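Aim 2 progress update. The chain analyzed this quarter is reproduced below.
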Amino acid sequence: MASEVGGMREGFRMTEIGELPTDWGLQPLGDLGITYGGLSGKSKEDFGEGQPFITYKSIFDSAQIDSSRFEFVRVAPSEKQNKVQYGDVCFTTSSETPEEVGMSSILMDEVGDVYLYSFCFGFRQNKPEELIPEYAKYYFRGPWFRRDITFYAPLIPSKTYL
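Predicted structure tokens:
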């Protein structure tokens, strides 16, 4: 059993997000990577054939993106659209309720060129070894992250957008 020092387990420290091992770093998410937008400039006629894309529902339904559920969209070679890569975290950006905004899912498969639905955004790490995808898929759906998303979501007017 771990010994305690002043009410804290040995080898741990208290941070603003709770108790963490002393050898773990704590950084703002923005320092770990970049965000990028989903598809833009698409009309309903563009959907149904073409390149695979990750749907809003796929992100909402599971912590890990199911590559068998991709839908398709036409993307011209001249278009500048963002592609999702292994380990990217995808988030929903809007919802009818604050509790449903900011749901996340991680692409855990190497799938080639795949795009992200319009009402979503992606997060890509600068150094993939800093946030293990297998851990991240649980963290971004966990109570600490979800609490912060649902706290800030109602502060945004109209429907809830992230």
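The first strand starts at residue 4 and ends at 5. The CA atoms of residues 33 and 126 lie 5 Å apart. These observations will guide the mutagenesis experiments scheduled for the next reporting period.
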